[in-house]
Amino acid sequence: MKRRLTALILAACLLAVSALACAEGSLLDGADAPSRTLNGTEKRGITLQPVTDNPVEEGISPVTGRVLSELTVPKGFAGQAATGRYLPVLAQISNSGSGIMARAPWGLTYADVVYEYPLYRKGDTRLTAVFSDLVPDAVGPIRSARIGNVWLREEWDGAFIFFGQQEYERTNVTAEFRKLGTNQKDILFSGMANRYGRYYTRMPHVAEPNNVSAAAAALLAQADPNFTPESVHVWKFTDEPLQGDSGVRITVISGDENREYDQSIRWDPQKGQYFRYLYDFKNNWNEEVWADKNSGAPIGFDNVIIQHTQVDFVAYDAPVMQLVDEGNADFFMNGKHVAGYWKREDMHARTVYYDADGNEIAMQRGRTYILILPRNMNTFYASYK
Fold first, then answer.
1. Which of 45, 111, 157, 256 is positioned for an S-S bond with 129, CB 3.0–4.6 A?
2. How many angstroms separate the CA atoms of 376 and 383, rounded?
């Protein structure tokens, strides 16, 4: 009888441990968490506290918070970790094409920040990558610029790699560069300009127009050696994990027509990063992780920001992102979520991201993905759990 009682107690303990493990696993993969829609227009009642420019720390990346001397610099690369010079490089990256492999960029495993935003009303998106710590020898596929990208470049005051531009009314990139005086800074590297044409090549076995590769590190070397950004774009960083509700999976719907741009972003507790998954509609809509076309390495992020933004579509369906503005923002770090706010005071100011208490939110050290989600269009929306 005693032996039987001991066995029963042991079995009960094993069941309890098993149940706890299952519960913890469910919290990690989000299976038991309810799905919640992110609201870009709700009144969150956040009172913004005063902020100042964050200090530049010697030897610490202002963009990722990493120790620059600890980064491995591959041969032929540039960037602050390689040369000590702070000069971010923004590059226009295509996210177009049929199927997962057609939308696999190269060089983005080294991007410190990646912005994704609407390209057309029907749901297509494009990317702007910011390289600062390390600038690779090759980045692509390089595509054209929109008016909002001009304003992003003003925020970072960095070099700009692009292949063509829109010149419609209200979206005239060339005129905006001229108006802002950017064309006088010798940091605009257009692949359609004869001066820089030799730094752009066509990737073999990749369909046009998504096959243009830019020698980014070599282009950065062409920048005016006397040019210095007006200010260093420094985010606030912390080594403490974010405290919030569950945020292990984000589902993003991009438009109501072109559903191939729908995606999910998932927290991987083993790797300690978020990974972006795309739908391969050529293969029964299976999800495939977003990875570098050259190395095959998945592109991971330590911070994910959903920035709810007014996006208007004007002539020829051209997007105009209101980036000098303010609105709701949602933050995802270490598997947690916090509802907050964002604000950019003027064209030359950095975007400040605020937590639920109105203080500037502290980022996790590492790479950041920022999705510009139209708050004025219900065909673009996101949910999380």
1. 111
2. 16
Residue with tokens 């968490």: 33
Question: How far is it, in rounded angstroms, from Cα 329 to Cα 360?
Answer: 12
Which is nearest to 308 in space by CA: 385, 236, 234, 377? Answer: 377
pTM: 0.91
> What are the CA-CA distances from residue 56 to residues 44, 53, 68, 104, 161 (Å)?
31, 9, 13, 34, 26
Q: Are 208 and 102 in contact (CB under 8 A)?
A: no
User: What span, in angstroms and rounded, lies between the C-alpha atoms of 331 and 354?
Assistant: 9
Q: Would you say residue 125 has pLDDT above 90?
A: yes
Q: Which stretches within 1-116 are classed as H helix? A: 2-29, 80-83
Check pLDDT > 90 for residue 71: yes
Query: What are φ and ψ of residue 16, in 5° steps?
Result: -65, -45
Domains in the chain, start-ordered, CATH in brackets?
A: 34-50+236-384 (3.50.90.10), 68-220 (3.50.90.10)
Q: For 86-111, what is the mean pLDDT?
A: 92
- Residues 74 and 198: their CA atoms lie apart, in Å, by 22
User: What tens digit of pLDDT does each residue of 166-211 get?
Assistant: 999 899 999 999 999 999 889 999 999 889 999 999 998 888 999 9
CB 259 within 8 A of CB 123: yes
Helix 147-156 with 173-180: angle, nearest 10 deg = 30
